Amino acid sequence: LLGQILDHWFESEPLKATLATDAVIGAMASPHTPGSGYVLLHHVMGELEGLRGAWGYVAGGMGALSQAIAHAATARGAHIFAEKAVCHVLLGRDGEAQGVALQDGTEVRSKLVLSNASPQITFLELVPQEQLPKDFVQRIRQVDTRSPVTKINVAVDRLPSFLAAPNARDGQPLPHHQCSIHLNCEGTQLLHQAFTEATHGHPSSRPMIELCIPSALDPGLAPPGCHVVSLFTQYTPSVLAGGQSWDDQDRNAYADTVFDCIEDYAPGFKASVIGRDILTPPDLERIFGLPGGNIFHGGMSLDQLYFARPAPSYSGYRSPVPGLYLCGSGAHPGGGVMGAVGRNAAQVAIKDFRHL
């Protein structure tokens, strides 16, 4: 249990709760949920420029990372086709992958196919079910993809000024503006209460909020004097109480709750907002293909990690379809902006390719 780990090392409840947010981030879990300690470990296991557990902003926004990878690939001769939806994986007589068919009818032939899509999309939508073992299909269907995350992107005309650390007179960013700011995290019990509300189908009345202002470090992201604010919030259920789906009224009501909370910490925040984009779990699934809206393509719980990710006997990036590999967050070691899954999958695919 995460709570036991934090109680062993720390005394301050606000510090324990702030650390606890990284143990439940993207997870429909409470700090009191068994196995939550691993998620905290997962988020601090890496390093950045020699600093263990450090995180950083990507200059130019997160899309710049994808562009950097794309440029490296094209420099080596890769061809990238964006906005070309894949309809299904092409299979040979012996059930081996031979390329992909696009929705516009184009067929792209290949000896190997690597899928960065979720296991659910890869194996339940892009491959004929009769080509897969029944127990494998059942396992993929049973993966826990519940997600509590609603992402809110905000444009503001001035920096938030927090009661605990008011802005300087010149309005320039202060050190805390360049960090990850955690709100409604004064105690782990608050996080547990927010989680409990969501399990009953109700968006948290006092949501856990992780607030980042990337433009404080990267001014090019916003016009002079303005900023972009990224709000990673939870807990919000995929389906509301009574089986109701999210509508615009529900989205805006939840966002208003989030903004009211921020206003308590930084009066004037709501008046500074000039635009907002609200992405609930169903929105994240529809727009980005994240199953259940889960940023990790499936919960990072102990029963869905290591040799069991995405399914027992298939944690080595190969799949039941020869020549088809999984290289996204649904494979070992799971989610996060670290590239480990892709690197590992590529090495396995290269090893196999040499024997074709």
TrEMBL record:
Molecular function (Gene Ontology), one example: oxidoreductase activity
SUPFAM superfamilies: FAD/NAD(P)-binding domain
Alphabetized Pfam families for the sequence: Amino_oxidase (PF01593)
Domain Amine oxidase residues, every copy: 30-188
GO cellular component, one term: mitochondrial matrix
First and last residue of the signal peptide: none
Keywords: FAD, Flavoprotein
Assembly notes: Interacts with COX5B; this interaction may contribute to localize PYROXD2 to the inner face of the inner mitochondrial membrane.
Protein known as: Pyridine nucleotide-disulfide oxidoreductase domain-containing protein 2
